[in-house]
């Protein structure tokens, strides 16, 4: 599952950098080059290093609310008190360490693609990311969230960002995503039981499941596998039925995801994150 693979993400970002400004990156220059190219895609530049944590009254918070970017989590929006900011900031930093401890290459993927986190106090809990805002994620933490909950939300949104980058570099779909909202392109969601979703959103609902199942398995839990085993399989059935609407690259991702749903092998997830066999995608057009 190369949408989880840190080596593939590095290759993808390197190709985007070269396409946008002609630079040939090295491992040492890649992180800064990534942040440089996404500066032109966003209203607010990323920090030079690390992940900047913002809140409602910061520039990113005001921008997202003004543009209703994550309207689904803005219900009951309220100011975040100082003690809550300190607690969330501490837990978020701990979640990054936790992710590195679970599997270092998953932490490295987070380090590469995430530059900003905006935290909101709202009635709806969860996270958000957007294809037009590379590097940025939002979080509305639950009242009882522990460090591993922050980590799972972080990884969830990291995978979305990584797939958005892959779509920029290789294209996933044969049609613009706006067209995929039509009924003929809809597929049942992997997480919203029985709900038909546009093809791209159904695909995104599925790709975040393997790493979260893996993280839970590492701490001895099976809640997500038990809850979503059938719906994830049903979603991949639908994706396969619509396979002609994916590009060759997108088709590979769908098939790799489907392989995971055959037996939910967590070693495959670990291999997908770290193995160099998932690193390369040949851009040479077929003869």
From TrEMBL:
<dbReference type="InterPro" id="IPR026337">
    <property type="entry name" value="AKG_HExxH"/>
</dbReference>
<protein>
    <submittedName>
        <fullName>HEXXH motif domain-containing protein</fullName>
    </submittedName>
</protein>
